[in-house]
Amino acid sequence: MATNSPNTALNKDMTRFELGTTAPLDAERTQLTLTRHYAVTPEVLWLMLTDPEKTPLWWAKVRGKAKTGSSFDLKWLNVKDEGHGIETDWWNGRVINAAEPHVLELSNSMHGTIRVELTPTETGTQMVFSNIISVPDEVVLMSLAGWHVHLDHLQEALEGKSVDWQHWWDDFFPCWQQIHALYTAAQR
């Protein structure tokens, strides 16, 4: 474990949020769904999803505008190469629907269709995150665990913290393994 990494201050208990679900849509596509509650307004969450200054705190670099029909490309920051985190190439995407600050729906060359619905509540915002993917069965729960961890990182970003992507594999791959094991056990 990297003891000098800023990630050590981030929460590593991936069980603080409920597990997400999977639903086969047809022979090729599966929908992943995760529901979260964040103690901020939909407007604050919208910025965390769309502002290129905020998305790298918890998710990916973003290139494009959150406007229906616009390009919206993603560059993952936690890909491993020779033991260190690296950035991926840009994965091209397009905004299918943007209704600020309530709905953001994207198509992405690597991650299929991503849809986020934000609903205000008395204590903040309920987020329903869904991802429709076409991947082999063994990758479905891996993807669900990955989104689970990213949405946990979002909670941390809302608290003013940021992931140190260069050390993500040392600091958070064990957390991903933990939540992936829980998803695998829940599917049995």
UniProtKB/TrEMBL annotation:
Domain Activator of Hsp90 ATPase homologue 1/2-like C-terminal: 40-159
Pfam families according to UniProt: AHSA1
Transmembrane segments: none
InterPro entries: ASHA1/2-like_C, START-like_dom_sf
Domain of life: Bacteria
Family as reported in the entry's similarity comment: Belongs to the AHA1 family.
Protein's name in the database: Activator of Hsp90 ATPase homologue 1/2-like C-terminal domain-containing protein
Organism: Arthrobacter glacialis
